Amino acid sequence: MTTSNLAYKRIVLKLGTSLLTGNSANLDMNIMSKLVAQIAEIHAIGAEVVIVTSGAIAAGRQRFKANHELHGIPLRQALAAVGQAHLMQVYEGLFEKHNITVAQALLTKADLSDRTGYLNARNTFINLLELGIVSIVNENDVVAVDELAGARFGDNDNLSAMVANLVDADLLIILTDILGLYTADPHTNPNACLIPEVHNIDTTIESMASGTAGKLGTGGMATKIEAARLATNSGVNVIITDGNQQDIIQRLVKGESTGTRFVPHTTKLESRERWMLSGLRTRGSLTIDNGAAEVLIHQNKSLLPAGVVEIQGEWQRGDIVDIRAKDMRIGSGIVNYSSADMQRIKGLHSNQIAQTLGYDYGAELIHRNNLTLFNNR
After folding, report:
1. From CA 311, how far away is CA 323, in angstroms rounded?
2. pLDDT at 185
3. Taking a C-beta distance cutoff of 8 angstroms, is the pair 103, 136 a contact?
4. How many alpha carbons lie under 13 Å from residue 167 in its C-beta half-sphere?
5. Secondary structure (3-state) at 149
6. Among 16, 82, 247, 359, which is 20 to 30 Å from 324 by CA?
7. Using CA of residue 109, residue 110, residue 114, residue 115, what is the dihedral sign?
8. Which CB contacts under 8 angstroms, 24+ apart, belong to 97-102?
9. Residue 130 — φ and ψ, nearest 5°?
10. Contact, 144 vs 81, CB < 8 A?
């Protein structure tokens, strides 16, 4: 395998708890060693790799021998605190055998929620990649109570999509203990068929992802579909497949198709646009009429108040809002007016803004330079 065999250069690799433990209660060192060896092989020929790993709580459970009276979230936070150190120690030891330096990054939603935090994290990851260092990323379970309580963002599937977005990845590989997305749950339905490729994540696809999470993990197939939607909307290829297959990582980065591949809707977006589309900082939404949607999509114009028919949420000037039309999200943008102001001027012509508010910040609710759309809409 040579450099020319790489179909993808920059890869984010998400490793799930069920894979890393072999569906047991403890980390499976044999499985982890094989995965690291595969990563080392592609790294040696020029692939840039970021790992988003689960397994901290499982590792903590393995190491946490003392009797205790903690229950629920406090127990899981304690397990994560103990386990994260052990998990990183395992990775360091395995990669050291291949002379690869690793770096640890613990992230929460808040770390990426503002523009400065997003750019700081991005710059750090890009520098590490350029130095040939493999970053190992995990959700910071010690402080991310929402994750442990099962909040929607709180899983490493969606975190992996955010990281793929952050570093301009060519490919996001989500390795789990199942071959991919099936038409039904293959554990209970013998007639379930693997779906090899998905071009559009619609309600039909979502309904096929209704399986539950593994007994040790926080995410199921539904969260993997959410992650695939976010990543493909940012121009990233996504593959969900079984990490126990022989040489699976090498095969995927060479361009082999196995598991379920999600085809990106667009080319890679400029990082500012990806940040807006990520939804990390969204404060509400504007619903626009069909005429305004046509102008935005086909004429690259700014959004004016005349096209707005409904406002949901509360925000201030400079916040990010979703733009919706025909019952779907078509993009996001940075607003020039607060939600309170927009409630007063929606549907009006731009020359009525100052008369209505007593001041104005320009004719546009969202200027075209602060607006980004999904190209597939």
Report:
1. 10
2. 84
3. yes
4. 30
5. coil
6. 359
7. negative
8. 97/36, 98/36, 98/37, 98/40, 98/43, 98/44, 100/40, 100/43, 100/132, 100/133, 100/134, 101/132, 101/133, 101/134, 102/133, 102/134, 102/135, 102/136
9. -65, -25
10. no
What is the spatial distance between Cα 207 and Cα 194, in angstroms, rounded to a whole number?
14
Backbone angles phi, psi at 128, to 5 degrees: -65, -40
Beta sheet of 197-198, edge-to-edge order: 102-107, 134-139, 48-53, 10-15, 171-176, 237-242, 260-262, 197-198
The answer to whether the CB of 61 falls within 8 A of the CB of 83 is: yes
Q: Give the Å distances, CA to CA, from 316 to 29, 67, 347.
A: 50, 49, 19
- The encoded tokens of residue 203 equal 């309600």
> What pLDDT score was predicted for residue 139?
82
- Prediction pTM value: 0.77
Per-residue pLDDT at 2:
55
Contacts of residue 263, Cβ cutoff 8 Å, sequence gap at least 6: 197, 198, 199, 232, 237
State how far the Cα of 185 lies from the Cα of 192, in Å rounded to an integer. Answer: 6
The pLDDT averaged over each successive group of 10 residues in the chain (377 residues) is: 76 94 89 97 96 87 65 75 89 98 89 78 92 92 52 70 93 94 88 94 85 49 92 93 96 94 82 77 92 91 95 92 89 93 96 95 91 70
Structural element, H or E, at residue 15: strand 10-15
Amino acid at 131: L
User: What's the pLDDT at 70?
Assistant: 59
- Burial call 150-178: b when 16+ CB within 10 Å, e when fewer: eeebbbbbbbbbbbbbbbbbbbbbbbbbb
What is the per-residue DSSP string for 246-281? TTHHHHHHTT---SEEE--SSSPPPHHHHHHHT-TT
Question: Phi then psi for 39, rounded to 5 degrees?
Answer: -60, -40
What single letter denotes the amino acid at residue 236?
V
Q: What is the pLDDT of residue 33?
A: 97
How far, in Å, CA of 159 to CA of 357, rounded?
A: 41
